Amino acid sequence: MNLRPSACSPFAIPALLCLLGLLLSSFTFGMSSFWPPVVLIHVRWTLVSSSPIKGDTSIRIKNSCGYDIWPAILTGVGNAPTATIEEMPSGFMLTSGHSMTIHLPQDWSGRFWGRTGCDFSSDGEGECETGDCGRRLNCTGVGATPPATLVEFSIHGQRSQRDFYDVSLVDGFNLPVSVAPTGGSSVSKANQSSCVEAICAADLNKVCPSILQMIVKGRVVGCKSACLALKSDMYCCAGAYSNPNTCNATSYSKAFKSRCPTAYTYAYDDATSLFTCASASAYTITFCPPSSSSSRSQCSLKNPNKLVSNSSCQNNSSENKSLTSVASFNIKKGMKMFVACTIIFVIMSIYY
């Protein structure tokens, strides 16, 4: 039998067009799961300090939090060479969305941290909910009362010697923070910790185990270290645990490490947490830094013995909401196309 294609139905072309439209709609819906929405954020930073303190390495301190903080500086921590800076402020208020720049000389070592919930009188007397330093606005020679997230430096200026820097949770957590160099060069091509950002962007207060919580007025304002809360040599790397061979990561430090992979979580966490950079001209410290890793704070730390893997916490909730909205939009568009095709079929059937 000789088979020939039948004559084209008068409404075959509209039908094919509708089918093509539906296929394109389905393709768009499928691709939405592979192309997350892009969000552009514009932040205007204003320099608070009208007369930056002169020196060799500039440190820009930015407050990206939605509230005011009180940054603090302690000079001369550890065994590194130390330079005294008489005119450098050791504590000040930094309003939300603003920044301040200071300048450090060569051979300076010290630490920075942010204080929260502070109330100071005109003469600088008062106290803070977290990070307090002797009930004073200026923390001259006084470190942070834990828990406090620390940014630590050993600065050697632009003399080709290396700077060292890190973000530390060894004294607990109170604020997300990051530190990143500007310029500079890697110490070696094999060194993956050269001239890169150290960061803890997750809000650990939201997932802090109850035994570590610091509560003020019914709110969790800080997350203590296991050393501070449990007072054990094993957690404090003291006594028989005072060397890297005996002091290892605990269930608590591992839980924090899963949230902040580049931050120190115990005293000998150097391998993944100590960063170096040669001849960097500047560093930026950002409190409450924007980062996709901040979404990981939604993963629970309430049972630190049952650690949650990083891969299980990668999805950002805002991205999921956006993708859901895109998917919903495409489904609605597909339904409208289907209704349109049905109407065309009915009309063509009536006239042909």
Short description:
Helix content is 22%, strand content 23%. With 352 residues, it is of the alpha+beta class. The chain has a single domain, classed as Thaumatin (Sandwich).
Please provide a written account of the structure:
It comes from Ceratopteris richardii (Triangle waterfern). Pfam families: Thaumatin. This is Thaumatin-like protein. The chain has 352 residues and is of the alpha+beta class. The chain has a single domain (46-313), classed as Thaumatin (Sandwich). It contains six helices and 14 strands. The chain has helices spanning 12-32, 226-230, 233-236, 251-259, 270-273, 317-351; strands at residues 46-47, 57-63, 70-75, 98-104, 108-115, 119-120, 126-127, 150-155, 162-168, 177-185, 198-200, 213-216, 219-223, 275-287. Strands 1, 2, 3, 4, 5, 8, 9, 10, 11 and 14 form a ten-stranded mixed beta sheet that branches. A two-stranded antiparallel sheet has the order 6-7. Helix 1 packs antiparallel against helix 6 (317-351).
